[in-house]
Design brief:
Layout: E1 5-11, E2 18-24, E3 29-35, E4 42-48, E5 53-55, E6 64-66, E7 92-98, E8 104-111, E9 114-119, E10 124-129, E11 136-138, E12 148-150, E13 180-182, E14 188-190
Parallel strand pairs: 5-6, 11-12
Antiparallel strand pairs: 1-2, 2-3, 3-4, 4-5, 7-8, 8-9, 9-10, 10-11, 13-14
Length: 191
């Protein structure tokens, strides 16, 4: 393998510092570095031969690998700031949140017509939104039959001693409300 190096250095007139664009044949990487004053150049952007681009990292493992913060800013109210497109049916658009040891903790997923937030520790969908009805399922409920459909217990808590915990329901047309309680045997009570 060749160990040849080549590059371009952009500096202020009569100064040693500025920017450097270089290629290193032994690592097969193109680097853009900055140099402040007479210090050592620091690589800022790295492009590998396989097309991976790193910002803040010299060893990108993905098509875009950023070490640090990022910002996306739209220039109008009608533009998408981040656009994820499914490449094939069944493929997913997943935003993944990982812990410090690279363990996968949470995922926000859009797959076909499904949208959900997935908890990898429990292997369950914490929140699921049904696309045809816009109904929301909670606690691995992937077939919500109501606007809010929860598997499990619901708790309402108010920390103030002067306030009461409330469950409020109102019919928008008549102003009347009802609360239906039903057990596993189908027995229910309407209040």
């Amino acid at each position: 393998a060749s160990t040849k190096k080549g590059g371009i250095k952009l500096t202020e007139y009569d100064k040693e510092y500025g920017f450097r664009v270089s290629y290193n044949a032994s690592t097969d990487k193109l680097n853009i570095a900055s140099q402040i004053a007479d210090g050592t150049p620091t690589d800022k952007i790295t492009v590998q031969h396989n097309g991976n681009l790193g910002i803040g990292t010299t060893s990108p493992t993905h098509k875009l690998d950023v070490a640090g913060t990022g910002r996306f800013l739209s220039d109008s109210s009608s533009q998408r700031v981040l656009y994820l497109k499914q490449n094939a049916a069944g493929a997913g658009n997943i935003i993944q949140f990982q812990g410090a040891s690279n363990e996968n903790i949470w995922e926000i997923t859009g797959r076909d017509t499904n949208f959900y937030i997935y908890n990898n520790d429990l292997s369950k969908r914490a929140i699921y939104i049904e696309d045809s009805t816009n109904y929301i399922g909670i606690n691995n409920n992937t077939s919500p039959a109501h606007a809010l459909d929860v598997y499990g217990e619901i708790r309402s808590y108010v920390s103030s001693t002067s306030a009461a915990s409330k469950l409020w329901s109102r019919n928008g047309n008549t102003g009347q409300a009802s609360l239906e309680l039903q057990n596993s045997e189908g027995h229910f009570r309407t209040i």
